[in-house]
Amino acid sequence: MQRYLYIALIVILAGIVVLFKIQNLESVTVSLFSMSISLPVSVLVLLIYVLGMFTGGFVLGLLRSLAHGATRRP
What we know:
Elements: H1 2-23, E1 27-32, E2 35-40, H2 41-71
Antiparallel strand pairs: 1-2
């Protein structure tokens, strides 16, 4: 029973992602220094989300190692 609930949630989430992708096909231009790139809005949002996951994971890992080092006895 629980497996079917998970499958249903995954299908609903995938449908929402596809709907978001279809509705956000307009291109935006992102500029940084002398570089610029044009991407669809949905791709840009996905890239920012993934970048946030990586940087958040690195920050949490750094904080864990600092906390572990601070609580270690000499």
